[in-house]
Amino acid sequence: MRLHEKRISSLNGVLCVVRLVERVALVSLLLIMVLLFATNVAVRQIGGPLAADLAWVDETVRLMNIYLVFLAAGLALERGKQVAVDSWRETIIARTGLPLKRIIDLTGLVFSLYLAFLSIRMARFVWSMGQRSATLDIPIAWIYIAPAIGFALLALRYCASLFGGIDRYTAAEKGHGE
Asked: The pTM is what?
């Protein structure tokens, strides 16, 4: 087995584990969000003193939704579910012969890493300021950690696509018929 094939194989192994963790996290987040929100609505309809005790649910669900969105971004990219103008891209490739898909992957990789870096800087800054959520009494910096994780997962997918570990373009083409 050549070195390149070994690296692709290792990358695919990492991606398998990452996909499993992402799916479990996403399903868990979504189910917990639904449970919390439904309970909160039911308690508000019934009324009573318990409704005031569940004021934390709205903010918790909002925070969970932020994580849900950023955690799902990598899976969406890998499956070709991101917004793209495929006909424009294919026309440019046909006319110019440019390795446009690789250019897009490289640009996405660099941009995602940069945004992950900025998100980490922002989280560290907010953490150092000691800001806390009034309702949940947790550091507000947790909000800024979600984009850092999400953009790192996007960078992983762009890297895998760039080096042939995944073929997100074929996945996108197959997805058009769904």
From this structure: 0.84
**139 — alpha (psi -120 to 50), left (phi > 0) or beta?**
beta
Q: For residue 100, give the nearest of 110, 115, 109, 90 by alpha carbon.
A: 90
104-134 in b/e burial notation, b at 16+ Cβ within 10 A? bbeebbeebbebbeebbebbeebeeeeeeee
Per residue in 120-148, pLDDT (tens digit) is: 999 999 999 999 998 899 999 999 999 99
User: How many Cβ atoms are within 10 Å of 80's Cβ, its own excluded?
Assistant: 19
What is the pLDDT, as a whole number, of residue 177? 40
pLDDT at position 178: 41
Distance CA 66, CA 164 (A): 30
Identity of the amino acid at 157 = R
